[in-house]
């Protein structure tokens, strides 16, 4: 468990129905923070295809997709991905996450971020993890700060979100100062 009543594990094909359900229920809530999604994205079929793509990238060693689950039922309540993993002298990755609206304000996203940073440091030997948040997404910025991320700048027109190119605040968390293995 990463926090009281919540676990985190690699996403698997069997999560498709649960993810479709939680994404459909949270569609309007997440719309201001997400890129445009087709109708099929919110279906079990769409999530099955998405999971297959995530797992293919994972097999290539550049993406580590996790599902955040209610521990008692193993039902998905969010996702967190560590992606764009670069090794060598850079040893960095980027993180993206979302949590079911019913679970916000309980420290779930912060706990998931902390666990991903632990994995990045201890298992992947990454030096840093980066993240971004919309300028007006103060809740996500608070989560990043609570998880030890520092603001490092502003990226104008960074991502196409909710119908327009949106500015994002950039964050990073340095995990250690050891030389690359």
How would you describe this protein?
This protein has about 180 residues and is an alpha+beta fold. About 30% of the residues lie in helices and about 35% in strands. It has five helices and seven strands, in the order E-H-H-H-E-E-E-H-E-H-E-E. It has helices at about 15-25, 25-30, 45-60, 110-120, 140-145; strands spanning about 5-10, 65-70, 75-85, 90-100, 130-135, 150-160, 165-175. Strands 1-2-3-4-5-7-6 form a seven-stranded mixed β-sheet, with helices on both faces. Strand 2 (about 65-70) and strand 3 (about 75-85) form a beta hairpin. It is globular. The relative contact order is 0.16. The mean pLDDT is about 95.
Query: Strands of the largest sheet, in order across it?
Result: 1-2-3-4-5-7-6
Biggest beta sheet summary: 7 strands, mixed
Low-confidence stretches: none
Helix- and strand-based class? Answer: alpha+beta
Q: Roughly how much helix do the residues carry, as a percent range?
A: 25-40%
| Rg calc | 16 Å
Q: Multimeric state of these chains? A: single chain
User: What coarse outline follows from CA principal-axis ratios?
Assistant: globular
Estimate the mean pLDDT confidence: 96
Number of strands: 7
DSSP helical segment count: 5
Please indicate the percent range of residues in DSSP E strands (runs of 2 or more): 25-35%
Q: Give the end-to-end Cα distance, rounded to a whole number of Å.
A: 29 Å
Give the ordered list of helices and strands: EHHHEEEHEHEE
